[in-house]
Design brief:
The protein folds into three domains: 78 residues, Beta Barrel (conserved putative lor/sdh protein from methanococcus maripaludis s2 fold), CATH 2.40.420; 85 residues, Efflux pump adaptor protein, beta barrel domain (Elongation Factor Tu (Ef-tu), domain 3); 122 residues, RNA polymerase II/Efflux pump adaptor protein, barrel-sandwich hybrid domain (OB fold (Dihydrolipoamide Acetyltransferase, E2P), Beta Barrel), CATH 2.40.50.100. Strands 2-9-12-11-10-13 form a six-stranded antiparallel β-barrel. Strands 6-5-3-8 form a four-stranded antiparallel β-sheet, with no helix packed on it. It has a three-stranded mixed β-sheet with strand order 19-1-20, with no helix packed on it. By secondary structure, the chain is of the alpha+beta class. About 5% of the residues have low confidence. It is rod-shaped and about 170 Å long. 25% of the residues lie in helices and 40% in strands. It is built from four helices and 20 strands.
Length: 354
């Protein structure tokens, strides 16, 4: 019995030592959290980044717009008649007072001659009445009636002269005869259009500015614009709308620029640039700009925790090989490759671009 008790004691001691040492030195089992970390690391998308730093840039507000004529007027006739002449050619430069269309005279000259003859007769009657009044053969009332008849005849002459002059439809200002609306032989009634005249000097560049930027635009502010044709112009702001468009919530602004030879044309797409106070901005490649789910323009960066962050940005200047923007942190790790395959909040691995 003693031997059996001794053997049992030895076996129990060895078992306790075995399990104790195994618990002390064995590798701990991985928990669910550790497995998740390793899995997340293994599935992290790899992106290429560029370290960028903000620097001070001249402030520029860049807007899209179009060129317009300073004035466009449909020149209408003030009397009825058939078009007898159309001396102005479409697209030609015209001066204020140049004849665009001329109506036929018809009976207008005869009416003027008759009115002049009547005026002369009334004038003689008035003079005779004054002479007879001095001699006591006419009353003052009769003389006044003669004077009134003369004044009416004088007014009739003036009316006939205006009617005759109205056959000449003239340019209201210097500009371009943009379109003819009546040809020789057409009969125009009062109020119908002979043609359209556009004033291209000055030329106007029109754009719409957002609610956030409208306070930065002032009357007289200098600016420049580049047209789709490659031409450029400089001018000053002549108009800032006091009321926002009810649909777009933007404000109309107009840049006035000299165009003495009419070389710059209206109706062209334009990029408008207005100077602002200097700002801190960063230069980024154009293809790094992305849109979020709400259509907001921005860029994606990697933070210190290897998480992707989306920042809305505003364009300051386009240099062709990249753009200057605001809205990013002063020091940022910009994703330059792979930005289209990650989203805000996702964890990534990154390498710096060569």
């Amino acid at each position: 019995m003693k031997k059996s008790h001794l053997a049992a004691t030895i076996i129990a001691t060895i078992s306790i030592l075995y399990f104790g040492l195994n618990a002390l030195f064995a590798r701990p089992a991985s928990g669910p959290q550790d497995k998740g970390v390793r899995l997340e690391k293994s599935l992290a998308f790899k992106v290429v980044v560029r370290d960028i730093t903000a620097s001070q840039r001249p402030g520029v507000l860049i807007l899209r717009g179009r060129s317009e004529a300073a004035r466009t007027v449909s020149v209408r006739v003030e009397t009825a008649g058939a078009v007898a002449e159309a001396p102005a050619q479409e697209g030609s430069q015209v001066k204020k007072g140049d004849v665009l269309c001329r109506l036929s005279v018809q009976a207008r000259q005869a009416n003027l001659d008759q009115a002049r003859a009547n005026r002369q007769a009334r004038k003689l009657e008035w003079k005779a009445a004054k002479t007879l009044e001095r001699k006591g053969h006419r009353s003052a009332n009769q003389t006044a009636s003669a004077k009134a008849a003369y004044d009416a005849a004088y007014a009739s002459v003036r009316q006939a002269e205006i009617e005759l002059s109205n056959i000449n439809i003239r340019a209201p200002f210097d500009g371009v005869f943009e379109r003819r609306n009546a040809e020789i032989g057409d009969y125009l009634t009062t109020g119908q259009s002979c043609g359209v005249v556009a004033e291209l000097n000055p030329l106007i560049v029109v754009s719409n500015v957002s609610e956030q930027d409208v306070s930065k635009v002032r009357l007289g502010m200098p600016g420049s614009a580049s047209l789709a044709s490659g031409q450029s112009l400089t001018g000053t702001i002549r108009y800032v709308s006091p009321i926002a468009d009810s649909m777009t919530r933007t404000f109309r602004i107009e840049l006035k620029a000299d165009n003495p030879d009419g070389y710059l044309r209206a109706g062209m797409t334009a990029n408008l640039r207005l100077k602002r106070d200097p700002v801190l901005a960063q230069h980024i490649p154009t293809d790094t700009m992305v849109l979020d789910d709400n259509g907001v323009l921005g860029a994606r960066v990697v933070d210190e925790n290897r998480r992707v962050r989306f920042y809305p940005i505003q364009l300051i200047e386009d240099e062709g090989n990249g753009v200057w923007v605001t809205g990013l942190p002063d020091q940022a790790r910009l994703i330059v490759e792979g930005q289209d395959f990650v989203s805000a909040g996702s964890q990534v691995d990154w390498v710096t671009e060569p």
